[in-house]
Amino acid sequence: MDPLSTAPSRRRFLAAAVGLAATAAGAPGAAAAADPERLRVATFNIHHGASPADVLDLERVARVIEAMEADVVGLQEVDRYWRRSGFVDQPGWLGERLGMRHAFGANLDLAPEGPGRPRRQYGTAVLSRRPILSWSNTRLPLFPGHEQRGLLRATLELRGTRVTFAVTHLQHDDNREREQQSARIVELLGSSPERTVLVGDLNAVPEAPEIRTLTGVLDDVWPRVGTGDGFTYDAVTPHARLDYLLASRDIRPLTAQLRTADPAASDHLPVVSDLQVPATRRRR
């Protein structure tokens, strides 16, 4: 065969090889593997800003949250416009005080406690230093005569990566109701969630069936990277782990700690964790 007759095909082969190399090096349209994001998350049942002795001091709660230096915090037992908490919009006040964005899930929405006052609300909240792109609150199964509970979900923006951050507070005195609430949470978050964090006061110990329902799809951060028993309740004499940070399997927990510097700020201790979140692969 004439060697010259092979030249065009050889040129095409070399051009294709160069093109593949350019794509691997970051040519337009290539999928780029971005570095994972580090995210500090926390959960805190703030007891409507009152101490175990029922002394109202929302500034004290704000200082505890501030000291955690978290990117995003899930709060439980949050008031808006209640007499017991000075008719303050607590999520709004904390957001402004801490320079954080906020979202609020009203699980109770009741008549005002005084003429001309706004309706009083009670539920959970998200405080975030990262942008909150959207949020929604879904009511969970309710047994007659009990308190309405909910799942507050916020979509956060982490430099191009979106994370679902959810906060809840399960029923305190009925394990059957908690089991139904946990099952509903799994339905809402999905059986194989990604880039998802669930935090909250779950009112059950780790061995309880309702907790196992959740840890069937999410990892309990504390056993993986925490030290000690992780007891969060009650804050002054901790004897039970009721407050949890749960993360989807693609998230790597790095640290988990209780914050005990001011245990009388609420009746629960806050928990904080550093997580490594995989970045979304971007098109160049």
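Above is the first protein from milestone M3; the second protein from the same milestone is given next.
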Amino acid sequence: MGARPDFTSDDELLDAYSETVASTVEKVQDAVVAIAAHKTSPRGRQGGTGSGFLFTPDGYLLTNSHVVHGATSLEVLRPDGTRSDAQLVGEDPETDLAVLRIGASRALSHVELGDSSKLRVGQVAIAIGNPLGFNHTVTSGIVSALGRSLPSKTGRMIDNVIQTDAALNPGNSGGPLLDTRARVIGVNTAIIPGAQAICFAVAVNSAKWVVQQLFAHGRVRRAFIGLSGATVPMSRRVARFLGVEQASGVRVSQVQPGSPAGLAGLLADDLIVGIDGAAVRTVDDLQRLLDESRIGKHCVLRILRGTQPLYLSVTPMESRRI
């Protein structure tokens, strides 16, 4: 007779899951803050609230643009009860991200930024924030889908968005979405009113690029071609057919009429694999390559349309800003 299988009890599995979530929260909880954004209007002082998280020891933090946009003053409440005035370093409404800074006389607890390109559907996702004024609320779930697109306040589509079923509510905006190693994988940004367990976060790799731009220029100046798309795998057969060494590309889901991409003849379902000789493996690659250096300049997109490889000429314009 063979050895009896060693079945782990449900209680043991639940205990392991609970311990994972609890230890993750303990590692990052001191870095998650509440944000109060005050606005002065003819009707008096108004305000809104949101969440954010410190990502450097010297007081820089990430949140959503919609939390802080138009604020005349910003205040940050840390978990130890410390209140600090915050300065807006810069914001990017087109990805709904903003960077703030608070003064720091000592090194502050901060989070580690992860790598959203390594995410898998089904892995555990943990959200921390301040929904409806309840500070440091923790919810957990799974990564439900990757590569979603959402419209930003400017009308531009935010690509490479993470969908999760970790519950979010008003006030969670700007808080971190974490993996089980306490690394930030996304910035919580949106819920769908009336839907259940459908919530979204801007991928942390997109946030890293935006942070670099805001640190360098105080704003994000990007080339705009007018499409939304998702990272999709590419078979070895297709890669060999195209003569490229990459395992993925960007599948176009929508082309805006009259945009540079539309005028160039790009169509939905086209697969973008390169621009100006540089490989385009992911949506992040495409966003990174469409920087200010390509505004108003002739560029060449390498695509696969069905079984036909094509080169399309496109001239990016400067992205609209609000």
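Note on the second protein: The CA atoms of residues 4 and 314 lie 65 Å apart.
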